Amino acid sequence: MTRMTVLAVGLAATVLFGGCGGGDAGVAAGAGDGETPVTGSPGAPTGPGVAGQGSAAGVVRDGSGAVVAGVLVVPVSLDEPAHAVPERAVVTGADGTYRWELPAGKYELGALRDGEQLGSTRVEVAAGRTVTADIDAG
Predict the structure, then answer these.
(1) Non-local CB neighbours of 51 within 8 Å, separated by 6+ positions
(2) Which of 1, 10, 67, 127 has minimal CB crowding within 10 Å?
(3) Distance (Å, rounded) from C-alpha 118 to C-alpha 120?
(4) 70: CATH
(5) Of all residues in the chain, what percent are helix, strand and coil, respectively (each to 5)?
(6) Which pLDDT score is estimated for 50?
(7) Higher model confidence: residue 44 or residue 100?
(8) What is the CA radius of gyration of the chain?
(9) Range of 118's domain?
């Protein structure tokens, strides 16, 4: 299994069964509807203004160029040591958009539906900046 597939299986179990710590469980909507990600660890400092963080934002599109709503977007840190990502996942909005606030570093962002990877892209997030990270799910 690939690293992304293993992550997808674990993520699906976390979303379905609510995690293991009794904290905030669930998946938040993406940037398309103004919602923010649910934190995986209550009180974890995330979001705009946190030192050393930037963001990745983009649109997930299928092979014909149509936006894909309602898919999970999951980051995997490619840095060594890997960055912890406090959110479990974000879901693309009705317009196919998403936004992640992430520690500066390199990531593979995967679009997943029903535990299957539809596509991915690699990005480098810089502190205080937003990188465009569109994903071709076609």
Answers:
(1) 127
(2) 1
(3) 7
(4) 2.60.40.1120
(5) 15, 40, 50
(6) 59
(7) 100
(8) 14
(9) 3-41+52-136
